[in-house]
Amino acid sequence: MRPTARRLVQVLSSLTPPTTRPHSVSFIGLGRMGSPMAYNLFSKAVAETKGGTRFVVCDARTAVSEAFASNFAKEFPGTQIDLVNSPEEALFASQTVITMLPSTPHVRNVYAEAGGILPALLKIPREAAHATLCIDSTTLDVETARVVAASVGKLGARMVDAPVSGGVPGAQAGTLSFLVGGTKTAYDLAKPTLEWMGKNIIYCGASGAGLAAKICNNLVLGVQQIVVSEAMLLGQKLGLEPQVLASVINSSTGACWASSTNNPVPGTVPDKSPPCERDYEGGFATRLMLKDMGLAIDIAEATKTPLPLGSAAGEIYSEVIEDDPDTAEKDFSAVYRYLRLLKNKDV
Ligand code: NAD
């Protein structure tokens, strides 16, 4: 770490299990969503508690957590931000631990593997474990989430699955919807923390219910983004200006977030600054949408639910990445560019 950053940020290096912990929050996973979520949570907590609050951050990419902590400490002098290198240290440091990770393997890794949250819960006194609240906002498979939450519960702590809807703009504005699964008690405990990052905190039911709702929502979104791209291409082929077509759809029965906020054609909704205005940078990575389609397809197979459109959408996102691997990190509305080039190839 650079010396200037070292003055602003403390690196927590103790691996000693604590007997008591402050009411601080640890945030693990400072990616496109986690970073603005942690910023909102910490800055609002600072404002409410009038400073003196302590926060802890952790990311597999150390440079990312260093930059986050350093920038935050500069903006909010007097705030203590600790960097930790493992989920275990994050749990030792705080009673509330929030995770915002890419998917199932990362959640398994952070919770169940050596240096993870579950082994750490075994090392702290039972009362300390009982005071622990784990909030996982990752979109992952329902079964793994239920197994992890049950393991957390067996060790005396509480856990909710709290995946989000609203994308990067919602994370930045603090207007996310949190879809929460877990006991009602755990939901009530998590709600005040979630309200610092979101607008709608929706109780969906028992453990895994938040994820079930999230997977169904993203099934709709993934299909819509493709069909909006198809319509925008077809309309232009028929001689319509894309701005005119977008404003017709957005004020008609075809209106949806994929068109009104995340329209894939540059110049159509410039006030919303969608990723297409930046060559599809930022936003919701196509690899993550492909992952979410896979989650929907797998759970539909397991529950014998027909998913003809979802299955087709999964194949299309897979082809988008296969065709141009760089698209994996770009916003999933880049499916428009893939279809446009496909059209030009006269396939
Ligand atoms: P991302 O890939 O940008 O960020 C994930 C972060 O987790 C990265 O910084 C990565 O370094 C970190 N990480 C990975 N493994 C780790 C580990 N073992 N320990 C600590 N840190 C680790 O992903 P994102 O776009 O922020 O999405 C996060 C989750 O939110 C995903 O499940 C995604 O499906 C969901 N989601 C994303 C959006 C969106 O628009 N980006 C919207 C809604 C939901």
From TrEMBL:
GO molecular-function terms, A-Z: 3-hydroxyisobutyrate dehydrogenase activity; NAD binding; NADP binding
Which residue intervals define the domain 3-hydroxyisobutyrate dehydrogenase-like NAD-binding in the entry? 208-339
State the family it belongs to: Belongs to the HIBADH-related family. 3-hydroxyisobutyrate dehydrogenase subfamily.
Which UniProt keyword terms apply here? Branched-chain amino acid catabolism, NAD, Oxidoreductase
The EC designation for this entry is: 1.1.1.31
Q: Where is the catalytic site?
A: K214
Provide an example Pfam family for this protein.
NAD_binding_2
Please name the source species: Daedalea quercina L-15889
Pathway linked to the protein: Amino-acid degradation; L-valine degradation
InterPro entries in the cross-refs? 3-OH-isobutyrate_DH-rel_CS (IPR002204), 6-PGluconate_DH-like_C_sf (IPR008927), 6PGD_dom2 (IPR013328), 6PGDH_NADP-bd (IPR006115), HIBADH (IPR011548), HIBADH-like_NADP-bd (IPR029154), HIBADH-related (IPR015815), NAD(P)-bd_dom_sf (IPR036291)
Name its GO BP terms in alphabetical order: L-valine catabolic process
The reactions it catalyses are: 3-hydroxy-2-methylpropanoate + NAD(+) = 2-methyl-3-oxopropanoate + NADH + H(+)
The record ties this protein, via PANTHER family, to: 3-HYDROXYISOBUTYRATE DEHYDROGENASE, MITOCHONDRIAL (PTHR22981:SF7), 3-HYDROXYISOBUTYRATE DEHYDROGENASE-RELATED (PTHR22981)
Instruction: Give the protein's recorded name.
Output: 3-hydroxyisobutyrate dehydrogenase
